[in-house]
Amino acid sequence: MPKAGISYGPRIKAPDYDQIVEAATTSVMQTFGVKRPEDFVGKRPEDLLVKASEIVRQADAEMALHIDERDEALAHLWFYDPRLGLARTAGLSTMGYRGAIARVIYGDKKHALPDVQSNEELAKIGKALKVKRVKDPEAQLLRAAPIVRAARTRRELAVRFMQEAVLALSRKPYDWKPEKIAEHAGVERELIYKQRATAAKRHGLA
């Protein structure tokens, strides 16, 4: 929300994140060859596991490439060119947006942002913190934020399906051990334990 003593430039129109999320969700479902969640009945969990883990890896790679671009643009706009509605523009909650700025500046998303009363003081603190100046922060934010949001959407959905596949493979008629599931998915065994526990809790089996 606006702060007394801070002047703000024009709002940056937010991308259509509802459409971005819908398209990302459709992309995941198409990868699995289904249109609705109930279509997963009859699908082989070992195949779903492999596809889900690949979606997660691809999404992680995309986020790693673009999340700093998004957050550096946000930090520039917060310190050097204040705007209202940056959380909406970035497709984040207010807490998520402040955490994104804190992460890229302090390396800790829970770190509090400076509480200041003027644009001059904001810019001075930004310089002292060595906040990167971005040549065209609006364009960078509008380019990177939708990519990160889409990748995160795909990841979250794929993780849920991966958890379901892990649980199915852990039970009859498969009875796969965590080591075998982890090897099949190409992930660490500890992740399989966590995913199995999450899925079991979701189904009231924990």
Secondary-structure blueprint:
Blueprint: H1 17-32, H2 45-79, H3 86-90, H4 94-106, H5 119-128, H6 137-170, H7 178-185, H8 189-202
Plain-language structure description:
The protein has helices spanning 17-32, 45-79, 86-90, 94-106, 119-128, 137-170, 178-185, 189-202. The protein has a domain at 17-160. With 206 residues, it is mostly helical. 66% of the residues lie in helices and 0% in strands.
- Point out poorly predicted stretches: none
Oligomer: single chain
What string gives the helices and strands in order?
A: HHHHHHHH
Rounded Rg: 21 Å
Portion in beta strands: under 5%
How many E-type strands? Answer: 0
- Give the N-terminus to C-terminus distance in angstroms: 42 Å
Structural class: mainly alpha
Mean pLDDT: 94
Main β-sheet: number of strands, strand sense, barrel status? none
Sum up the structure in keywords:
206 residues, mainly alpha, 8 helices, 0% strand
Q: Concise description?
A:
With 206 residues, the protein is mainly alpha-helical. It is 66% helix and 0% strand.
